Amino acid sequence: MTAVAVTGLGIAAPNGLGTADYWAATRGGKSGIGRITRFDPSGYPARLAGEIPGFVDADHLPSRLLPQTDRVTRLALTAADWALADAGVDTGAFDPLDMGVITASHAGGFEFGQYELQSLWSKGSQYVSAYQSFAWFYAVNSGQISIRHGMKGPSGVVVTDEAGGLDALAQARRQIRKGTPLVVSGAVDASICPWGWVAQLAAGRMSERDEPTRAYVPFDRDATGYVPGEGGAILVLEDAAAARARGARSYGEIAGYGATLEPGPEAGPGHVHRRALRRSIEIALADAGLDTGDVDVVFADGAGVPEEDAAEAETLCQVFGPRAVPVTVPKSMTGRLYSGAAALDVAAALLAMCDGVIPPTVHVDPCPEYDLDLVLHQARPAAALRHALVLARGHGGFNAAMVLRAHPTTTG
Predict the structure, then answer these.
(1) What is the pLDDT confidence band of residue 409, given thresholds at 50, 70 and 90?
(2) What pLDDT, in 10s, does the model give residues 45-55?
(3) According to DSSP H, which parts of 125-209 are helical?
(4) Which residues, in sequence order, are CB contacts of 69 under 8 Å at separation 6+?
(5) What is the DSSP string of 24-58?
(6) Is the Cβ–Cβ distance between 232 and 186 less than 8 Å?
């Protein structure tokens, strides 16, 4: 079976813009959660978010792209540029059909759509931009990245809420195994605008606390919901042998993947939820050819919603045993980035394996009943991180699990 390596990272996160800034902040436990500045949140029950500060789109993209793209696409295009540069990819040296783009999306270009609706109702239909036809769409990031870099291979978008970041990477791996040498994948989401905010509030799972250090505290005894954020990660995936042949560096490999979909609420109580999540982990481990004892760290989903935290904690204890493996939730520093969250967790897990250190979960007073070995407050050195498990769950019953294998030269 073709091994698939990650050779490039491009990160845009609330606590760091660019891989170096993000990783330094994440290792150091720096949070990017604060009161919303992109609009006045005073009239809304939830007022905190993980916003990306200091991103000036005109510094990274040509001016012609700005009027036709939403903030989410500008962030994704910039992250893709960074990922390709990090991988040392000269796209001109590839056949365009040998390069694909597969991303995930939670909401598409929500803010762009909001502005066009404002124009429609305040001024008339003749003032609605023609770019609305695609700028809002879920697949817009894949399309714009493909156009910008002349990539004409397999392209698509996966829409599975917060599980999407892992599902997109798995689909990219599938295409590489079918013969496409290189796929740009991952996810970036950004919908912190009034229209997007109302849509997110509708699920009733957001924290309404105003203290940035206590609003999103996964696995905490006082968890009351999550804080949304914007950003994510774009990754370059390649046939590992082909990447080695061109002298590319590898951050690690995608070793296994599993996904399950929970039945609807009419099917029964929470045990179904737990069973589906556990099954996704078992499938991913089997795909990687590993046992539970081979996993050195778990990057948990960490919903911050008490019943979902309890289900995830119980599942991890069933699979690995009580406190048997370090567990961390670095998204406690960024908020939940929707489809971008899992892609960012994959990037963090790869960086953790490269550096031999597990980033912390911050501001959490863990509920002792969960029986997890949470990495709290500060990073934990871990000399030999060989395999990491990343979990992601999407609203509506999506579960995804991905096993990452360290590059042989990065572990003892």
Answers:
(1) low
(2) 999 999 999 99
(3) 132-135, 140-149, 164-177, 194-201
(4) 61, 77, 109, 112, 131, 135, 140, 144
(5) HHHHTT---EEE--SS--TTSS--EEE--TT--GG
(6) yes
